Amino acid sequence: MVSKKIPWVIKYRPRKIDELVNQDDAKALVKAWLRSWESGKPEKKAALFYGPPGSGKTSMVEAICREYGYQLVEMNASDYRRASDIERVAKVASLQKGLFASKRLILLDEVDGVSGVADEGAIEAILDLIETTKNPVVMTANDPWDVRLRPVRDKSLLVEFKRLTKTEVLNLLKKICLNEKLICDEEALKFIAEKSEGDLRSAINDLEAVAEGAGKITLDLVKQILRARDRVLEPFEVVRNILRSNYVWQAKQNASQTDLAPDELMQWINENLPLQITDPEDLWRAYEALSKADVYMGRIVKSGSWDLLAYATELMSAGVALSIVNDVKSKYRWVKYQFPSKIRLMTQTKEARALRDTIAELIGRQVHASKQKVINYVLPYVRIIFDNNPEMAAKIAVGLNLTDSMVRYLTQRNADAVLNYVRELRKAISEEVKASKPSKTSSGTSPPTKGKGKSTQTKEKEGRGLDAFFKKT
């Protein structure tokens, strides 16, 4: 059996631009664009790489970073839905230098995944990023011709990535087999290449899946394994199949039959392990494997080392399944599985967390602290003020320009009272601004009477404005 250290799709990704399979036109365009950045006079600050899945769009970006010494700052526009997310992550990266590299390249992956209604403001934030950036911006899309992306297209260099031919995919598969010292039937490789439909990433993953299970590549094995893997199962069925697996390759194959992200699959397994496994020692071993998978996932998030994903996947699937040794019959019991409570809770609290993050950002700008520090050390005291001192809360709300929904997030008990004070304070500020503006005296109007007594107009002003508001409060 082939020992797996890192996924082949990562192991065999191109190190330089010229190593990309085909895409000669794209290579020439990208090199010219990078030269314009090196000279400091880019005609277009952003490039939009578009083409079918597996044609080399992301691989091109990674090759650029390795060859030209850029630090990659990546975000998926399908995952970061709001304009504030794009502004916070991408815009800061575009204006500052990297820690370990003097140059940065910003990658916005899958920009065609931004929807018009749900992601209101995201397109405008991307356009603002392109306008202000001091570093190259690359966006990828499968379909760039959506009408919503027209402003982005107008601001970007369009680079097309063509679908790879069967022969081009086949040649790379042969090279991998040679490097891995695998016995490969050419008909089997042709089957994989044809089935991939030009998706090189899919073809490499298919080849690795067959090699993992058998150590050799034959047409019968390819048809048997890939036909089983083609079916995408419901999460409940995937978890059940993983726990019932008896071999490492079987557990990993079952884990691949889902559209769930690795961290989501881990939550599904975590939620349903105690329902399926009855023996305490088996359960302890299973959670030990799952906790190690969680450690790897955490390191991937912090460092971006996706090479660790292979270990995390193996631990959460095979590591858990093969932990059941004392009461093997328990994994074949039928039990009703549950939807992960953490995912359900995150969905239910998404809007509240968005409000919390926005408030923390507003406070952070004033006190020069990070969002997380504000959430941990400042917001609890702000909540106490809003619950117990509506007048002071109103001053804070006006100073930070908080919306009504933000005020209601900070206090439920005194929300109406705080909002009433906010309206009074804003009205007082407006009147103070009007009063401070010099009034134009029309011809024929007598000047104000001099003397010790105050004029009626002055007395009226004293009854309004900020001074009057603060006297009342």
UniProtKB/TrEMBL annotation:
Comp. bias intervals (Low complexity): 436-456
Nucleotide-binding found in the keyword field: yes
Gene3D superfamilies from the UniProt entry: 1.10.8.60, P-loop containing nucleotide triphosphate hydrolases
Binding residues annotated for ATP, in chain numbering: 51-58
Nucleotide-binding found in the keyword field: yes
Record PANTHER family: CHROMOSOME TRANSMISSION FIDELITY FACTOR 18, REPLICATION FACTOR C SUBUNIT 1
Protein name: Replication factor C large subunit
Annotated organism of origin: Zestosphaera tikiterensis
Gene: rfcL
